[in-house]
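Key result, reporting period 2: structure in, sequence out.
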């Protein structure tokens, strides 16, 4: 998606450790007009799927998911990062290793909010090694629900998450795929 790629080139900052900082428009300050264009594009890309729910993960996925959901006219459920190990029985729970924070979270969703008849679109801001998505897929499958597709704002194509998720046969769409980025020169190349 050219609009997103142009914005990454204009405002993205490459940090050490393969981290792309986009917090001036995507995951701290949020450009809602851009999110709206992204929502429209996801609606077009997933038009052949019947989707009745969007699932994302806190915190950065929530803003994008909410605007995308307006285009699908469906509710959003976000998985919560929980400190507690004493989880009550009425939740699905999965450990997820955080790429940016270098630690593992227990991620939970109440069993009330994902049901076997649900057809889910998973939305997140970034795809790196795929741990967050694997956790969300596992939660949806634990509920007996269907993953119709996955929509990602920025995929880092030089990490292996995209390959892992696509090899599962899941319809994955990333609006911008970064092929390479160089922290010294600031150069970003898209696929
Ligand atoms: P994964 O689980 O695919 O390794 O990483 C995905 C999660 O880590 C996303 O939910 C996102 O919040 C965070 N993340 C991964 N790479 C980046 C990055 O380069 N920049 C930012 N801002 N977040 C990232």
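The corresponding designed sequence is given below.
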């Amino acid at each position: 998606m050219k609009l997103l790629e142009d914005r990454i080139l204009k405002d993205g900052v490459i940090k050490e450790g393969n981290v792309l900082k986009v917090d001036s428009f995507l995951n701290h300050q949020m450009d809602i007009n851009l999110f709206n264009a992204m929502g429209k594009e996801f609606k077009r890309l997933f038009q052949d799927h019947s989707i009745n729910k969007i699932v994302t993960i806190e915190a950065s996925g929530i803003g994008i998911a909410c605007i995308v959901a307006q285009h699908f006219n469906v509710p959003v459920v976000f998985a919560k990062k929980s400190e507690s190990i004493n989880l009550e029985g009425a939740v699905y729970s999965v450990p997820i290793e955080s790429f940016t924070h270098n630690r593992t979270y227990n991620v939970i969703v109440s069993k009330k909010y994902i049901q076997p008849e649900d057809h889910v679109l998973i939305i997140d801001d970034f795809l790196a090694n795929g741990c967050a998505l694997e956790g969300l897929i596992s939660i949806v499958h634990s509920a007996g629900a269907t993953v119709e597709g996955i929509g990602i704002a920025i995929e880092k194509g030089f990490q292996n998450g995209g390959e892992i998720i696509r090899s599962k046969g899941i319809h994955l769409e990333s609006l911008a795929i970064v092929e390479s980025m160089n922290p010294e020169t600031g150069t970003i190349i898209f696929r």
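The chain has one domain: 2-190. The longest strand covers residues 146-156. This case is discussed further under Risks and Mitigation.
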